[in-house]
């Protein structure tokens, strides 16, 4: 398979049909809307003849939906955080639905009503919270003065006055001594905290200046008593108000809990609101007039029939005009998006290509070529039957019993496929959770391990390099074929076929000298290598006007042989990671075996599970990362450039559900 072929779609219909057509297209999730005014179509005719009917952009609907989305999300957070019985919360189970069924279940007025009621509850709870903070502050203050047995406002007479206040506890002894030196002044300590002492002072008004002088000297913090009742009474009244607030809050939270029954409606409303926002954003790319609109977009060729069917279901056939055009050379170079199309075995590996860079529209998709190599390399680096079985059953469980988001489903498919080479290499290495497979079972001689990670290290090392050598030759071959297709024949020789010949020649020489001890084989290898090396040097001389520059370019190109040696060395990580993962697993098993029997079958069970889980995680992470690195650096660099723009269809957010076409969903 390869890059999905695209065509340019143009739709013209009456303005009142715009929403229905956009809904049908969004439900397909397979069409990217183009900006009409940046397309290659000549719009001067429309601008000349329909200038008076062209509509300006109106984003009022988009703003309304964005406001609604914010309110829904705030309401969901508020319900989940503050309503009672949060332990009974049942999360929304992910679903598979069509956009039409989702839209039919969306009741704008009903949701708006919920949001207003929840917002009122939110405001009321905020008021209660604010009032509680004020009352708690008052309670703390009154607790200090509750032993004051008079009301200052009611106990001020013609010749006497009362002041209340506090001083630092470090100065209270000196303060009392100075105050008591004044005759006719009554001092009462009301409250003594760690840092402050609170007093009430009763004095003659004629002594005001003397009292003020002392209070100023000791930074007496004076304040006015605000109540017309005793502090004890005010304190009790404050406590009653707090208790009343607790009851009110409980009542509000019980009311809020009733909205848990509507959580699913709010989740679905959030999903639908996202869909409306994306749809409103798409309208900015259309040409809209009072009477009609024009829409352009990119559509995969194999989706054309689906689009026709969807439009026929949405509105009468004679009310929409649709045409499909092949992309121009300019559009292929600058505008057309890229969507990969591969079978179910290869498709999960597309994410590796996407992480690197999508191919250009007219470039080869490297995913199908890369997939078998990645599978072999990944299996070789994890290489354990037990770990492979965990991957297999874990992925199957997730895929069969859960509705996964598309990205997670692709990951599950990815590891499901990779579990098989992991198991196969586990048999080759004879490893089951780090335990060696038996050599004899029921009297039968078993061939395991086929390759021992302790005795056949050199063999595994050589095998790793052989796999790398095959992948390098494959990359060069693909490059040569692609250059030939573009009629760059000389480039295909100097950049591909000659390098293949050089590497194969060197291989023949090594085999002739070290394996077969055959001079004829060595001579044949030297001839192939020399001819290939001369081709690498000569072709740039032919292509360049300045022969000296061509020679220098050719010699510099030949120097690239050192890079190929480095590439081959990189593949030795296949051996290193495979052996290290198995050795770590065996070491964990040995650690538990050394424990006493009682500990081994209690704590040891938990320990071995935890340790193997850690080793599995590290092995998978290492194999994933290093496997990808070998593809990106050593393989893709031989033939692949990338730089394509990702296909971005008009779709939904799919936050809580997977939206599928009607043909794929059983309502």
The low-pLDDT segments are none
- Structural shape: extended
| Helix/sheet category | alpha+beta
Radius of gyration: 40 Å
Helix content: 55-70%
Strand content: 5-15%
Number of strands: 15
Provide a count of the helices: 23
For the sheet with most strands, the description reads: 5 strands, antiparallel
Mean of residue pLDDT values? 87
What separation lies between the terminal Cα atoms? Answer: 32 Å
Coiled coil: 111-138
Transmembrane segments: 373-399, 411-437, 457-476, 497-516, 522-542, 598-621
Protein name: ATP synthase subunit I
Subcellular location: Membrane
Keywords:
11% strand, five-stranded antiparallel beta sheet, Alpha-Beta Plaits, 667 residues, four-stranded antiparallel beta sheet, 59% helix
Q: Strands, helices and their partners?
A:
Blueprint lengths: L5 E9 L3 H11 L3 E3 L9 H6 L10 H23 L12 E3 L1 H6 L3 H38 L14 E9 L3 H9 L5 E7 L3 E9 L3 H10 L3 E3 L7 H27 L5 H21 L3 E2 L3 E9 L3 H11 L5 E6 L3 H6 L15 H7 L10 H16 L2 H17 L4 H24 L1 E2 L2 E2 L3 E2 L2 E2 L11 H29 L3 H27 L3 H25 L3 H12 L2 H10 L2 H21 L3 H4 L2 H33 L21 E3 L8
Helix pairs in contact: 1-10, 3-5, 3-9, 5-8, 13-15, 13-21, 13-23, 14-15, 16-17, 16-20, 16-21, 17-18, 18-19, 21-23
Membrane topology: Multi-pass membrane protein
Subcellular location: Membrane
Protein name: ATP synthase subunit I
Please, could you describe this protein's structure?
Strands 1, 2, 8, 9 and 10 form a five-stranded antiparallel β-sheet that branches. A four-stranded antiparallel β-sheet has the order 5-6-4-7. Strands 3-15 form a two-stranded parallel sheet. It has 23 helices and 15 strands. Among the domains are: 150-229, Alpha-Beta Plaits (2-Layer Sandwich), CATH 3.30.70; 347-438 and 450-456 and 572-638, no CATH class; 457-570, no CATH class. It has 667 residues and is an alpha+beta fold.
């Amino acid at each position: 398979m390869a890059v999905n072929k695209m065509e340019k779609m143009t739709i013209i219909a009456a303005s009142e049909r715009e929403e229905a057509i956009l809904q049908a297209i969004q439900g397909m999730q397979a069409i990217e809307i183009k900006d009409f005014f940046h397309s290659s179509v000549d719009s001067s005719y429309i601008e000349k003849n329909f200038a008076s009917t062209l509509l300006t952009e109106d984003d009022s609907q988009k703003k309304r939906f964005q406001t609604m989305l914010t309110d829904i999300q705030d309401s969901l957070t508020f319900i989940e955080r503050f309503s009672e019985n949060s332990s009974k919360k049942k999360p929304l189970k992910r679903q598979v639905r069509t956009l039409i069924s989702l839209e039919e279940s969306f009741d704008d007025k009903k949701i708006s009503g919920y949001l207003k009621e929840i917002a009122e509850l939110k405001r009321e709870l905020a008021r209660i919270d604010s009032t509680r903070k004020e009352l708690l502050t008052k309670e703390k203050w009154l607790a200090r003065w509750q032993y004051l047995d008079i009301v200052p406002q009611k106990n001020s007479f013609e010749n006497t006055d009362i002041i209340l206040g506090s001083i630092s506890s470090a100065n209270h002894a000196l303060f009392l001594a100075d105050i008591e030196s004044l005759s006719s002044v009554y001092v009462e300590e009301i409250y003594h905290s760690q840092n402050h002492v609170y007093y009430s002072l009763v004095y003659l008004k004629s002594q005001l200046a003397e009292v003020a002088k002392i209070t100023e000297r000791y930074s007496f913090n004076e304040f006015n008593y605000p109540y017309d009742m005793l502090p004890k009474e005010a304190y009790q009244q404050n406590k009653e108000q707090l208790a009343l607030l607790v009851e009110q809050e409980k009542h509000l939270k019980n009311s809020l809990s009733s909205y848990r029954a509507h959580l699913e409606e709010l989740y679905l409303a959030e999903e639908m609101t996202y869909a409306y926002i994306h749809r409103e954003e798409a309208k900015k790319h259309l040409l809209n007039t009072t009477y009609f609109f024009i829409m352009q977009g990119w559509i995969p060729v194999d989706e054309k029939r689906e689009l026709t069917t969807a439009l026929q279901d949405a509105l009468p056939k004679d009310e929409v005009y649709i045409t499909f055009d092949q992309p121009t050379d300019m559009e292929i170079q600058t505008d057309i998006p890229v969507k990969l199309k591969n079978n179910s075995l290869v498709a999960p590996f597309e994410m590796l290509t996407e992480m690197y860079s999508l191919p250009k529209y007219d470039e080869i998709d490297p995913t199908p070529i890369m997939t078998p190599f990645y599978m072999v390399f990944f299996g070789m680096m994890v290489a354990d039957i037990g770990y492979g079985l965990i991957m297999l059953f874990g992925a199957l469980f997730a895929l069969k019993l859960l509705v996964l988001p598309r990205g997670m489903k692709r990951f599950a498919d990815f590891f499901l496929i990779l579990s098989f080479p992991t198991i196969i290499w586990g048999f080759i290495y004879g490893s089951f959770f780090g335990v060696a497979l038996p050599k004899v079972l029921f009297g039968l001689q078993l061939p395991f391990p086929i390759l021992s990670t302790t005795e056949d290290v050199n063999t595994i090392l050589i095998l790793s390099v052989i796999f790398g050598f095959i992948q390098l030759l494959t990359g060069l071959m693909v490059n040569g074929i692609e250059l030939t297709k573009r009629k760059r024949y000389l480039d295909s020789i100097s950049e591909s076929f000659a390098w293949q010949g050089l590497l194969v020649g060197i291989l023949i020489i090594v085999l002739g000298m070290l394996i077969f001890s055959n001079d004829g084989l060595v001579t044949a290898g030297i001839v192939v290598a020399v001819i290939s090396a001369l081709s690498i040097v000569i072709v740039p001389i032919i292509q360049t006007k300045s022969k000296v520059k061509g020679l220098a370019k050719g010699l510099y190109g030949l120097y690239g042989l050192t890079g190929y040696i480095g590439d081959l060395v990189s593949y030795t990580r296949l051996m290193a990671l495979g052996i290290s993962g198995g050795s770590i697993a065996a070491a964990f098993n040995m650690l538990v075996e050394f424990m006493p029997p009682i500990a081994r079958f209690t704590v040891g069970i938990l320990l071995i599970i935890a340790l193997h889980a850690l080793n599995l995680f590290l092995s998978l992470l290492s194999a994933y990362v290093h496997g990808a690195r070998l593809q990106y650096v050593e393989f893709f660099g031989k033939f692949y450039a990338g730089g394509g723009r990702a296909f971005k269809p008009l779709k939904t957010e799919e936050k809580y559900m997977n939206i599928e076409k009607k043909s794929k969903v059983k309502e």
